[in-house]
Design a protein that fits this description.
Elements lengths: L2 H13 L8 H5 L9 E5 L5 H8 L3 E6 L2 H14 L3 E5 L12 E7 L6 H8 E12 L21 H4 L4 E9 L5 E8 L3
Parallel strand pairs: 1-2, 1-4, 2-3, 4-5
Antiparallel strand pairs: 5-7, 6-7
Length: 187
Amino acid sequence: MSEEDRQRWNTRYRDQARALEPSGFLRSLADLLPRVGRALDVAGGPGHDALWLAGRGLDVTLVEVSDVALERAAAAAREAGLHLRTQRVDLETEPLPPGPFELVLCLNFLWRPLFAAFPKVLAPGGLLVFAQPTRSNLQRNPHPSARFLLEDGELPGLLRGLELLSSSEGWSEEGRHEARLVARAPA
């Protein structure tokens, strides 16, 4: 990712007035998700999902390219009395932190080469939770732009080395056309 892109994300998070709620999709999986162990939130922005996971008892590492997002996440964790590891990572040029992780969460970030990396950082039996808008999202929403969208029907074919537990594609409660999946690493 270019320095210009990183600064664009910094500006976006700096201008974001309110804290975001944890993902409804993530919360819908509460009974399936681990309550102990390590979790990795990939490109997790200001940490709304990472903090929710930490509040459930997980040791969470948030990786993000934006310094501003990481600062906001760390401040929110301190305020909530939660432990959260933050790490600035350009996921387009740097590897994921070493696992093993019982949970890897990647919501609203698409870098297709990560699908080869996910199985390598998951613990045996660990879960991958992934969601990203598809090209159909452009029917109602101008963002994200086409270069950040999955093709309709593409997501299950990206999965390698993991057992697909569930997969869906359609309009979400937030009004976005998303592809979602939950997958498990071999035990």
